[in-house]
Each structure stands twice: as C-alpha cells, then as structure tokens.
C-alpha cells in the first residue's frame, strides 16, 4: 500500500468553518453534516484533530455537489 504524502500548505485542505463559508453555507455546516451523515464524505476526505475538523476540497465537492471552480458562479446566483 502506497503511503500518502500530505502537504498542509495545500489549498485543498481547510478547516470546517472555512470550508463551510467558502461554499456559502452556515459556519457549522460541515460539522453538522459530518455528525449526522459521516458516510457522505468519501473515505480520507475529512478528519478530526482534537475538536477541529479538517476537510479536503474533494470532500466538500462530494457533499455539496458544487466544484470549487464553480463557487464564484454559485455565489453570484444567490
């Protein structure tokens, strides 16, 4: 099994509050979805470190159905 290399400076990793607001949701959106429906996040796209949830771009795209590249267009529509 190949070991993953993670770059914490990568913009594809973000805290749950940052990810929620970036996708135009309430700041507790990621935490709420994770607590109620953890299987919505593909394996390896979200992890809890103490009290902090870290989520990947891929995880947010899977849960919301909105690609990061589409965020500007979605915000204009709302």
Q: Runs with pLDDT <50, length 5+?
A: none
Listing every helix as H and every strand as E from the N terminus to the C terminus, the arrangement reads EHHEEHH
Give the CA-based shape. globular
Mean residue pLDDT: 88
**Which radius of gyration do the C-alpha atoms yield?**
13 Å
Q: Tally the beta strands.
A: 3
Strand order across the largest sheet? 1-3-2
Alpha-beta classification: alpha+beta
Percent helix, as a range, is: 25-40%
Strand content: 15-25%
List the total number of helices.
Answer: 4
Largest β sheet strand count, sense and barrel closure: 3 strands, antiparallel
User: How widely separated are the two ends?
Assistant: 44 Å
What does this structure look like?
- With 78 residues, the chain is an alpha+beta fold.
- It has four helices and three strands.
- The chain has a three-stranded antiparallel β-sheet.
- The longest helix has 8 residues, at 29-36.
- The radius of gyration is 13 Å and the shape is globular.
- The model has no long low-confidence stretch (mean pLDDT 88).
Would you kindly provide a brief summary of this structure?
The chain is an alpha+beta fold. It contains 4 helices and 3 strands.
SSE layout:
Elements: E1 13-15, H1 16-22, H2 29-36, E2 46-49, E3 52-56, H3 57-64, H4 71-77
Please name the defining characteristics of this protein.
globular, 78 residues, 3-stranded antiparallel β-sheet, 38% helix, alpha+beta, 3 strands, single chain
């Amino acid at each position: 099994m190949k070991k993953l290399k993670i770059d914490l400076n990568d913009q594809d990793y973000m805290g749950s509050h940052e990810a929620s607001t970036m996708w135009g949701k309430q700041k507790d959106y990621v935490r709420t979805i994770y607590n109620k429906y953890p299987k919505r996040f593909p394996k390896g796209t979200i992890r809890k470190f103490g009290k902090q949830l870290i989520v990947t771009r891929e995880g947010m795209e899977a849960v919301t159905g909105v690609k990061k590249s589409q965020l500007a267009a979605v915000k204009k529509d709302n």
